[in-house]
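Run log, item B.
One chain of 267 residues. Sequence copied directly from the ordering sheet:
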Amino acid sequence: MIRKALLLKLFDAAYMQRWNDKIRPVELIELDKQAHKMIVAYFLARVEEEGGTPVPWQKMIEAGVFELLQRIVITDLKPQIFYKIKADARKYKQLNEWVYAELRPVISPLGKAFCRRYQDHFLEGEGAVERRSQTPPPPPVEKDVFKGARVLVVEDEPALATAVKEAFSDAGFVVDRAGDGEEGLARVAQNHYDLIVCDLKMPRVDGIRFYRAMTAATPALARRVIFVTGDVAGTDAERFLEESGCRWLSKPFRLGDLLRAAREALA
């Protein structure tokens, strides 16, 4: 839940003058600098998206918010000092731990998942993308390993359900579809499934009620469910996902990420 303290913290950026020893035509505030970064990020992401690359918009927007919150706390650090700290991994980690301690009272109402994503954002530091790109990808998983594994897709959005079903079918899975939790329960009662992909928000019987009824009847499937959902920060759905321990993906997601999660669940 967004509370007044967080909004006031964000508004602080509108009054913080940028440390900048260079000549500039106008005075800059912290909010200006971060807004410029996000505008550039938006246009670059749109170019990638138009080229056919899916863009995780929620993650990108959150990254901008995380960077802004960090800068608000460390605004008194001149850039030269900040970059010296950032060059030392141990000192930069200590700095971010202190920043998080300062921010925790105002961001904790957004939920544990949001706080964890904030911490993870600064965990790897600069160069993480380059290091990941230089790391050889894991060997591809052969289709035959999962060929014949039966998957139930419980999703009320026809277009998304069709895309997910086709992706699993192309990967060698046998796929059934249910339009909501009630139909999903009927299918589970009639058939054996190795994996279930389930939306959280659906008419009649939603994903939470479906999961509880399904696991009561078929406990072996409790850890073989992957949820797909929109933003859950600070909601009952977020608490449910944490309690269930199930894998989940935030919409919109890449079908490749969903297939990867499925293979991990079946491994």
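Observations after the first pass:
- The beta strands are 150-154, 174-178, 195-199, 225-229, 247-250.
- Residues 125-135 have pLDDT under 50 and may be disordered.
Flagged for discussion on Thursday.
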